[in-house]
Design brief:
By secondary structure, this protein is α/β, with parallel strands linked by helices. The chain has eleven helices and twelve strands. The longest helix has 24 residues. Bound molecules: flavin-adenine dinucleotide and protoporphyrin IX containing FE.
């Protein structure tokens, strides 16, 4: 661990338990310094607070891992063009974060912490701006909804077509804003590999109190317009690898896995691909028919569905993280894991127990 990383982590422990206060102080400071910035943020801001802070923490935790950090921050910087973030905004953000940290930690804060945060923020903001400036694609794509299908009570599968080509890789996600909740952008994984006609598929689950997901599942209809931002995420296929693949999907975490499998159908002949797809009950296996069709067509593809909360299901039962291990050992394989954060965490834990090296696992927690 570098000195910088050690100092950041040490100083973070001073404020970690008071993240809510840190976030409200930070936003208050920022909006006071530039009241126009308030218009960029949604009216209701609880979620923005936690997401922004969470991303800074993620960046700081990965400060010693430049590859991972670059992927993440370059994506975030390209994506942030949708907010018209300027170098002055970045500077203001940096000052507001530092001042809020100082205020909250009071006399426990010291110059060494100050220097470390200034350096870390400079790296983070620098990487975001560098990627934004290098980009020649549009900041936002307008897309028309082409189809919308309800799959059970909570899930919808819809397709849309951007007006301009939107280049992305199978496994990536884009932020979406719909007319029903302006200024509320949420990331959703694209559920198909890039197509010539540009059509993009999404799988969305309406979460209990969710604003955007509720609208995308219950209100969206063909003809509606959406706004999409730059693709993000590094959970993509390495075509040069010869390793067999295991995909583990929970709920709508199936979306990027389906895109990856479709991508593989375009070139793969030799790599075995095992897809494990988990849900609480059969209704949650909302796209199984399509997966089964694919596995009948491609001899290298196998699909194992599993349900955790129902006794009636004829297939595998239990948490998907346990089911995967039952089918192992998987030491030579590479992995794609996608689903709710707890499911992803449990799977990573089980794979670590099986001595699967961490650098063979790509994952995305979708919440
Ligand atoms: C990289 C990435 C990819 C994603 N891909 C997809 C995808 O393909 N399909 C998809 O459906 N979602 C996906 N998500 C989640 C999506 O971005 C939204 O977070 C989700 O739809 C909830 O947004 P909302 O506006 O409806 O809820 P919010 O208004 O943001 O949240 C409302 C309340 O619901 C809670 N909540 C939010 N999400 C969940 C959840 N999953 N389970 C339980 N409670 C929750 C929040 O804590 C909050 O209390 C992805 C997230 C990430 C980070
Ligand atoms: C290092 C600096 C920054 C980091 C790490 C960061 C990170 C994030 C993250 C992770 C999100 C939530 C996901 C998303 O919507 O993309 C977010 C949202 C947002 N960011 Fe930033 N950001 C930074 C700087 C800025 C700047 C300079 C602006 C100024 C315009 C800005 C404006 C916004 C807005 C308006 C949102 C939306 C909030 C919401 O919809 O809930 N960010 N930021």
């Amino acid at each position: 661990m570098s000195d910088l990383s050690r100092t950041l982590k040490e100083s973070w422990t001073l404020v970690e338990a008071r993240q809510d206060r840190l976030a409200s102080q930070f936003y208050a400071r920022m909006f006071l310094a530039d009241p126009q910035l308030r218009d960029l943020f949604p009216v209701q801001m609880d979620e923005s607070r936690s997401r922004l802070l969470a991303s800074i923490i993620t960046a700081i935790q990965n400060i010693d891992d430049p590859d991972r950090l670059d992927d993440y921050l370059h994506g975030l910087g390209r994506d942030h063009r949708k907010y018209h973030a300027t170098p002055e905004h970045y500077e203001l953000f940096g000052r507001a974060i530092l001042q809020s940290l100082r205020d909250l930690a009071e006399d426990q804060w010291c110059d060494e912490y100050d220097d470390a945060w200034r350096e870390a923020y400079g790296i983070i903001a620098g990487k975001m701006q560098e990627a934004a400036q290098a980009q020649t694609d549009p900041a936002i794509w307008h897309a028309e909804v082409v189809s919308h299908e309800r799959r059970g009570r909570d899930v919808a599968v819809f397709t849309c077509r951007p007006m301009e080509p939107l280049p992305y890789k199978a496994g990536q996600h884009v932020s979406i804003e719909c007319g029903y909740h302006p200024r509320q952008w949420r990331p959703y994984s694209v559920a198909n590999a890039p197509r010539r006609d540009g059509l993009m598929e999404f799988h969305v689950r309406a979460t209990g109190a969710g604003w955007v997901s509720g609208a995308l599942v219950r209100r969206l209809k063909p003809g509606d317009m959406l706004r999409l931002a730059s693709p993000m995420g590094a959970m993509t296929v390495n075509r040069r690898s010869t390793r067999d693949i295991v995909c583990v999907a929970g709920g709508t975490g199936l979306a990027p896995i389906k895109a990856i499998v479709q991508e593989l159908t375009r070139f793969n002949r030799t790599r075995w691909v095992h897809v494990f797809v988990g849900a609480r009950n059969e209704e949650g296996l909302y796209d199984l028919a399509d997966l089964v069709r694919l596995s009948a067509r491609y001899p290298w593809l196998s699909v194992v569905p599993a349900c955790s909360n129902t006794r009636r299901f004829a297939g595998e039962r239990g948490q998907i993280s346990d089911v995967v291990v039952r089918y192992g050992p998987w030491r030579g394989n590479e992995f794609f894991v996608s689903g709710p954060p707890l499911m992803v965490k449990a799977t990573l834990h089980r794979l670590a127990e099986q001595q699967v090296p961490a650098d063979r696992i790509k994952y995305e927690g979708i919440e």
